[in-house]
Amino acid sequence: MEKQYYNEEEIKIHVILPWLQKLGYKMDCIEFEKTIKINEGRKTKSIFADIVIYSNSKLETPLIVIDVKGPNEILSKSGRDQVISYARLLPKIAPIAVLSNGKDFHVFQTLDKTRLKDLPKKNELLNDFVSTVLSKNIQDALREEATKELFTIEDVDVFKDLLKKCHNIIRNNEGYDAIQAFDEMSKVLFAKMYEEQFNKGSNRFTTDIFDKTLADLRVNIVQQQFQEILKTKGFKELFPPETKIDLKDRTIRELVRFFEKFDLTLTNFDVKGEAFEYFLGDTFTGGLGEYFTPRNVVEFVVECFSPKIGDKIIDPFCGTGGFLIYAFEIVSEKIRLNEFSDDEKVRWKKVLSDESLFGTDWKYRTAQACKMNMIVHGDGNTGVLQADGFKDVEGIIEEEKFNICFTNPPFGAKETDEKTLNLFELGAGRKSQAREILAIERCLKLVKKGKGLLAIILPDGILNGDRNSYVREFIHREATILGVVGLNKETFEGYNAAVKTSILFLRRKDEIDESVSKNVFMAVCKNTGYSSKGDQISGNQLPDILFDFKNYLKSGRFENIHKYSKIVDLKTSSERIDAERYIDYMELPIIENVEEIKRDSEYNFNDIIKISNDIISDISNDSYLKSFNTKDFKFYKFHELFSPITDDKILEKNVEYIQLGLHGKGRGLFKRETNKGEEIGANKLNFPKKDWLVFSRLFAKNGSFAIVYEEFEGGTLSNEFPTFTLYNEIYKKASLLEYIIFYLTSPQAINYVIRLTTGSTKESRGRFKENQLMDFIIPIPKNEKLFHEICEPILNRRQYIRNINKVVDSLDNISTYLQLNLPNIIED
């Protein structure tokens, strides 16, 4: 069994250091908690690199920087950027950066952030690699970029907190829902940005000026600034001409009080952008989640094709602009790190902002959010339009104009407009067509022939449904399939979309032909870093798939690090193209100790003979066939024997919990499944203790009553399973509990439960309530001798069932062992 570690220090000592020694790195060449001082403007701070490995014991030339995370921490993009920044900021740049939580190891080249499959051995590394390949200008640019990123990581949380406080002020003062509050906060934020950009010398965005103009002139200065925005290029495109800030004066004043402390001109675009986008996503998840693609998926999709400087990029269904924003970030970084002159950098930045990024969304509300998002990130938003994604915008968005298309089209809706349908081969002659199917054809038409690239997220039904084989035939005719990545269903569940999806990567053909794609990269992702509630969780597999896919696209060699990646040759144009069809991604059981299984099986099979004899003996002695006189019993209400009890605990996000279920017919509890706290649809659960009684509100009518035995301690129950403790121990506790469960699951007791729950409302679904159980009458023998006579076969029955279950388990184990030794399935 794999040893558990609980903190960074344990991982460092027991995992990282042995790993380094095995690769040939000596302990006298390692420095711990290396202090690095950095400055940005007037801001300074010290950072600490967990581990730095040098070329020799003089500790002069660094080779590797390692950042160690806790065992349940997420290895995120910001974690990657942080450790790479540490490596770039050493007096001499270390060529390799490693991020690890003890289970996963992500190794990067410091210079271009490229992922490496493994950490090279010591004898494979050039001692002074950096100075041999990089000019001083590039090294300085890398250090400047690293400094900016480290301050960004720190400042993003501060700015996020500011936006959250302002949002809450509006909701509390005005009573708006989350989206309306976001709209009004955005107007005030852009008034602040406008004032700093155009009136820096006489900044009117202060509480002093706000109070003075309101008192003396009866003018709300922020409302006035907002009216100026509506006439200013670059801002006026965000709002309709008659728009006003729909907030009370006192609310606007509170927002000014918070915002005035920040000089947004000194806050870099990455900070403002990331905080704004985070807040945008958080807000839209509740109301417009279908227009938002999770950040992990956006980063993966864009990095697969890694746009170049000068590429024209389109998202015709852009939603809040996630793909465009991240493409902007990637190309911006390439411009900053390229050995251009300062004038060339300015020119390419302008090309990026004004000529490279284009998006449309048919909803005004969503297109507006996208424009805001792009402005806050530092882009001019000129290419984002409120328009029908299926139609050209003359001179701006036209067919064969773009190098790359990234998109996540809306699912489930039908296009019924005849003119729109007739624009497409996949729509012509039909009364309706799924918009996501038309989106495939539209996006392929937008990119250039022969080299245009498309990455599109699609519901799996298009990739594997029999009815959609004609769509797959169209895809093969028009494009080469470069890759297919299946996403787990939880990816979009937190955004109100339960559909299972895949990402399809295509390159448009020069000419239409009937050839079928060969050597297609496929991968199944079982964890994209999100729970079904949309929370971030550890174990994101997309970075590993990204390494496999990019490496394959670049070199043509397949050297995978992701367990469920594969190269597939498709045979016909109509066959399924979902990755799950071609990759065996289900985990097979592992039989660790065959000899132990044999011993247990022999013991249990011998025991079945004894069990059979005991049951026959009980039946012949009439143990189960007795009749009783009512006057020999005393009748107790359930509340005279039991009191309710719970041990509710708040769940921790990254801790795994065993969730218990309850069989019917008195057959007891069972271990249903194990999930992390973040994957469970409740904040807290009940942790039952040995000898508690439990029942199912919903299935009491099926005999779902049980005792909590010792093996179920440590498991959890939801509030659908009330629990009780026996306080009136008339007889021996264990026997009394068995007797009461036996009676509660008797035909007469079940009939009574059914009568009590008949006529329940649809909402209650026939639940048996605690107060009904508390008044339930249970007959218990007055005489201890009679009680034991009744209990003996009850206890025997329980033991028989346990022993028989062991036999069944043994039979299952040896059958599984035999099955696993049979040959695996060989596909044609």
TrEMBL record:
This is Uncharacterized protein. It comes from the Bacteria. Belongs to the N(4)/N(6)-methyltransferase family. Residues 8-114 form the Type I restriction enzyme R protein N-terminal domain. GO terms for biological process: DNA restriction-modification system; methylation. One of its GO terms (molecular function) is DNA binding. Pfam families: HSDR_N_2 (PF13588), N6_Mtase (PF02384). Residues 270-571 form the DNA methylase adenine-specific domain. Keywords: DNA-binding, Restriction system. The keyword Transcription does not apply.
